[in-house]
Amino acid sequence: MDDATARMRLETMLHELDRSIGVLRGDPVALQDRSAADAGADLTDADRTQAMIDAAKRQRTAVLAALKRLDDGGYGQCVDCGRPVPEGRLEARPEAARCVQCQARVERRR
Ligand SMILES: [Zn+2]
């Protein structure tokens, strides 16, 4: 995948993330209009919405970091070991910052 394609895909992702974060943020307001009887369910919905917002924000941060690597010329290299991130991995996840091995190591640390 060349840099121009990567940039285009990342910018599309960023745009879609911004839109879904906006939509999700609108949700709790709508939920507050419901009757008090639904309060328990509302809390669950609000928690779920918040979790989705958090996930979208994390992905947004990863996309922004990938765009910065494109600017800096480091795109497509693993941020941990410096080896090239496999093409297939970038196709599936253009925002990937690490090769599969380093990503697995990071996720084990969590
Ligand atoms: Zn690596």
Please specify the SSE layout and strand pairing.
Elements: H1 3-32, H2 39-72, H3 87-92, H4 100-109
Helix pairs in contact: 1-2
Bound molecules: zinc ion.
Structure commentary:
The longest helix has 34 residues, at 39-72. The protein is mainly α and 110 residues long. It is globular. Helix 1 runs antiparallel to helix 2. The chain is built from four helices and no strands. The protein has helices at 3-32, 39-72, 87-92, 100-109. The protein has one domain (3-109): DksA, coiled-coil domain (Four Helix Bundle (Hemerythrin (Met), subunit A)). The chain binds zinc ion.
**Class by alpha and beta content:** mainly alpha
Total strands: the figure is 0
Mean pLDDT: 88
CATH domain class: Mainly Alpha
Radius of gyration: 18 Å
- The number of helical runs is 4
Indicate the percent of residues in helices.
over 70%
In sequence order, what are the helices and strands, one letter per element? HHHH
CATH topology name: Four Helix Bundle (Hemerythrin (Met), subunit A)
Supply the CATH superfamily name. DksA, coiled-coil domain
| Low-confidence parts | none
Shape: globular
Largest sheet geometry:
none
Distance between the termini: 30 Å
- Assign the CATH architecture: Up-down Bundle
Strand content: under 5%
Identify every distinct bound molecule in the structure, by name, code or SMILES. Answer: zinc ion
